[in-house]
Amino acid sequence: MSSTEEKIVEVEIATAEDVDKAVKAARAAFNNPTWHDLIPEDRAKLLNKLADLVEANVDELFTLQAWDVGKPFKTSRDFEGGHLIGTLRYFAGWADKIQGRTIPVSKDKFGYTLKQPVGVCGGISPWNYPLTNSGWKLGPALATGNCIILKPSEYAPLATLYLANLAREAGYPPGVVQVLNGYGKQAGQALTEHMDVDKIAFTGSTTTGRLVIKSAAVNMKKTSIEAGGKSAFIVFDDADLDQAAKWAIAGGLGNSGQICSANSRILVQEGVQEKFVKIFADIAKATKLGQQFDEATQQGPQASKMQYDKVLGYIDSANKDGAKLVIGGHPHKGAGGKGFFIQPTVFTGVTRDMKIFQEEVFGPVIAVTTFKTEDEAVSLANDSAFGLAAMVFTENLKTAHRTASKLQTGMVWINESNNTDYKLPFGGFKQSGLGRDCGESALEEYLEEKTVHVNLGLKL
Known about the structure:
By secondary structure, the protein is an alpha/beta fold. Helix content is 42%, strand content 19%.
């Protein structure tokens, strides 16, 4: 457990042989009329039943997640719990609205399209939001009639295993929903390379995402990849600085900074930098670090020793590169001197050539850079290999929309940060991934479009 550095449980590790058994079970389930011929309304009922069970077991699910990765229990249950339940109900609502098109071609020919499930899907989820991300994969996959094998992170398997039991209780036929524990290089790779898997949905680092794409190419399976980010948070001089600071805290330091779309780069217009940084730093300094089951806790530990060491390495790099440390920058020991806690950390004077500006830290570390003009802000924001998200704070709507249109990111939040909604597409440009989670767009990731040509009398 990351807050005490103690082992809490041991779980079985899936081998390539286990993956093969799971894929065979999924294929059998997909071809079985019990699932394959289920009418859309009944698929919706099953997803709503699963949502009911999640709601009834929300304390158990989020207790396990808190044990797994150190997330503050109350905060994650209250916000992520509602999001997970809402996601399942949202996609349940889509189950009977998946439609093809009729396309008149000529008097002698008629065409139409069918939207059909891909088949057997693999879902590889991360450790930072194990339950939320499982819902993002389960919802569209099951609504569209696929079978899915989830491979949670080896750092956070427990809550997803519990979720699998709820799927069984909801009434899904055997093989439709499965969960396999395992390491990425074993179970994950076996799943992505399997010749009878039709689609892989992956959420994780950009480095691993590239490997997933290569492995999936073995049979040209469909892939959707949600990878890393380095989101810029642009503060213009007419912004409400108090609100901007509060949103920057939530979107940059929330979940101990372990958010793929975290606003880890703050770009502040020169005239208001000093005032903004003071407001932001004062709030960050007051953040309560602590155990995940203490209701006063606002920031838990990093999820693992590996992540803890990685974040401290970036802090060391920023100091060596000449960034100015404003607050934090050190480990914070929990009860008994244990735990992978890191103080909320803010650097100013960060330039675009520093590692802390360019690379994803995935921790409670914020890099502040100044700009003079709107064009310079856009240039700095777009100077990244990533393109997941950006945030714009201004009271001028023309500035807001103009800037949003120029940013090379899949998502832009205006006067808020990381306020994700399962009804809206989630995904990025550039090396932040392929495809989209959430919203109607996610359905297409789990569907194949078939065109049917009908000859109405043309003779040769």
